[in-house]
Amino acid sequence: MRRRSRTMLALAAALALISTALHAPPAKASNQLHQVHQLHQVHQVHQVTYDKYSLKIDGKRVLLRAGEFHYFRLPSPGLWRDVLEKYKAEGFNAVSIYFHWGYHSPKPGVYDFTGVRDVDRLLRTAEEVGLYVIARPGPYINAETTGGGLPAWLKNVPGRARSSDPGYTAAYQDWLGHIDPYLAEHQVTRGGSVVLYNAENEYAANTDRQYMADLQAKARADGIDVPITHNQCCDAASWTTDWSTGLGAVDIAGVDDYPQSFECREPDTPWGPWGEGVTERLSDKSPVFAAEYQAGSIDAQGVGFDKCRQLTGVKYMKYFYKNNLIQSGATLFSYYMGFGGTNWGWLPQPNDVGTSYDYGSQITENRQLTDKYDEFKRQNYFLGAAAGPLTETDPATAPAHDNSALQTVARANPSSGTQFVLLRHTDRAATTDDSTTLDWTTRDGRYTLPVRLNGRDAKVLVGGYDMGGQRLAVSSSEIMTHAEIGGRDVALLYGRDGEAGRTVLRYSGAPTVKVLPGDGGVRASYANGDLTLDYTHRGLARVQISGGGRRPLLLLLGTDEEAAKFWRADTSAGPVLVRGTSLLRSAQMRGGTLDLRADTAAAGDIEVFGPGRKVAVNDTAIPVHGTASGSLAGRVPGPRPATVPALTGWRTHSEAPEAATAFDDSSWTVADHTTHADDYGFHNGHVWYRGRFTATGAETTVKTNAITGKNGIYQVWLNGRYLGSAAGGVQADAGEGTTTPPNPDPGPGSFSIPSGLLKKGEPAVLSVLVENMGHNDDWTAEEIRHKQPRGLVGASITGSAGQISWRIQGAKGGEDLTDKARGPFNNGGLYGERTGWHLPGFGDGGWKASAPGSVTPGVNWYRTAFGLNLPKKQDVPLTLHFAKGDGKYRVLLFVNGWNLGQYINGEVQQDFALPAGLLKERGRNTLALAVVAENDAKLSPPSLRIVANHLGGVSP
Ligand code: IPT
User: Fold this and answer.
1) CB within 8 A of 110, min separation 6: which ones?
2) Hey, whose CA ends up nearest to atom 10 of ligand 1?
3) Is the CB of 233 under 6 A from ligand 1?
4) Residues 189, 225: one domain?
5) 253 CA to middle of ligand 1, Å?
6) 144, 235, 292: which to mutate for ligand 1, most atoms within 8 A of CB?
7) For the segment 664-712, what is each residue's pLDDT rounded down to a tens digit?
8) Active site includes 127?
9) Are strands 911-914 and 55-57 parallel, antiparallel or unpaired?
10) What CATH code is carried by the domain that includes residue 711?
11) Measured between alpha carbons, how far is residue 726 from residues 12, 747, 924 in Å?
């Protein structure tokens, strides 16, 4: 054993202090890079390499398991830590992050990386939490966000996006030139956490190899020296050539798999309609990388994310993830999404999503853990515990058996011989209850092992395994984790409730076996070095084994549910297992006390297996006593109750003065080409058009065309008279890979003109309010798709020959943001938005007192303020709930000036996340609603709802 010298330890301690100081959030944005640089001078640098089996850090194999996270979908940087700690707590060791070009760049050459866009803080948080980062800066990201991450101003840049076209090249090189330095500074090779760099996204539909080569050359020039990856969609065959060699080839090519489809409508019917989901090996020089593996779904059918969560639920995870693990031999996994978040403001791409991007993922939009989280925890803890042998495996002979309804598939580590056996149904869709007996030879001998698979399920069984100081010959239970704690091994195995289990352990002589009181009916027998334990998975059984030539073992045998109650964390004094809290964020030994940072949903019992004899939870010492299992037991407090006020004191004001003939639009931009609101720099939200003409008096009909993106509307007024609304044009979908011809008649509207409204020879004004639901993505890399115009694209008046002269007004300032903190997606061009009616400081004292209720067509605002006094040191996520109303209307909701989404009456989403941080949990908040009604409508006032209440949490 090598010994570290005292001076080295002292130096390390000093450096740790410096680095803690430097971890403080930077005072000024301009200092950020400089600070990052200093930070890494005191951090250790590491080397990242790989071979056909796995990634290696400093020569040590790593089994990478990441959840995807989008910081831009959680506009509260303090809460990034909450989500990342929840990833870490369930055994992920990495986070995969898209970086959203359009989110940072409102205008060519203008970039912002401060506040909710502070990527340096994001990467630092990942480092502090202890997660590797797979950095995915695009330039194209897809992700169901506006433009697929391309900035809307790119519509005005000539040249095909996602190609080596010079116009596009200049634009994206500028983006990479801004984002890459952050990613480079935070690389593992400089002491940070970025371990992989993903170039582009599913670049399957295009084959511009030069573009892929240029992207990588740029990254390298910007200092990226970790392996570059690509997420290929959706199987290797879609590439025309081998992307592991030749121009544009990446270091580690990965594959995206979404086997369960996005059909949330029928969540129980499909079983891998899009295939088996076995990640393909794309090269013999690099490991198999499941770059995006389905962990939820978009809700394109608008049936609600709970159904998507069901579609991709625990059974799906058990079957597909384990099947993939053993069949593919992948050692890098990234799950899309780990936490989806919120499409606040005008962040959504209109075709597949609305405000919520919950994604049916394991952590809900309001940061709550689900049963899917438990399953990730079971599987991830296993991957962590068995990473040694699992990171280097080859296909192996699977144990034989005689039930054709069941199938075994095996991999083995070539040096240790450890075997990993997948037990699945032969027909993957089978729901039958089948049993068989495996004839299983491991390096320890030949074993017969009864196994069972009931319904949609799969198991990974381990044989010939060094389980800490123990030797596991075979087991029909699955391993969740094992750890050496206080001189003994603690191993946690699990199985489905009521199923029988057998575990065989090896000893040099008969060990002493003590079955502690509890469930499971454990029976032990010993012969020829094999201790065989037979039991039923029921509750939690505990068996103490000592002697037999090994260090003592506490074997915990639980059901799935009992196993998932355990948390594992690592301290400088070794690993810790805890049960009884609803989350364990981290653990630390401080002067003989084991200090846990944990969340609790209710007061209850806690049990701790760890170093030391004293326990503190969230800095408060708790009395504990020793148990027969050698653990410490005590009680933890729960949260204090939390309440939210009713929303009262509403004031209202209607707007749309733009509709009136006399409105002064002289400051508006003259619109002499009516094709593109984006041409004028109005990229998000609502845009007004006012057209003047001289009436003939013979006009009969206004005919219009406007493009809004799916679900968008536009409204027409003539001389202040409301003529009506129409659905805006959407992306014409001619199918993948085709060049979609522009629709000649997009979003048609036809409005008859009431007689007498126009008088011959008099000036008339046509006012049109067009919503922009966001920009199409560019998944197929066909120019026409993401560049589809938004806005009024045609207007004519039957019975009039005269010219209409137009002026246009969108968000105040256009590309020159007037609200840099909230950024490009916060506001459109409603009068109230341009005038600041959504902002906390606005004086609404002159407005009429009235709660949301009956509205007339057009735009109506409501404002109120509410005080919150949520208990300190608790995490109490709130939503704003909209009850269904009558009529066609939609509501933009602003909390403290932040646009947190759009409620569309009649659509499935009625609850909107209000993230703490921008919501003041102990203070006064302003709520402003912009109600855009298409007809006379009636809404009921929204209300605040408490989603959950935990003691603990992070400070937002
Ligand atoms: C894949 C994308 O890479 C990702 O950005 C996201 O859009 C995801 O799908 C769906 O939510 S695209 C692939 C499944 C066709």
Assistant:
1) 815
2) 143
3) yes
4) yes
5) 16
6) 292
7) 999 998 887 656 788 999 999 999 999 999 999 999 999 999 999 999 9
8) no
9) unpaired
10) 2.60.120.260
11) 67, 7, 39
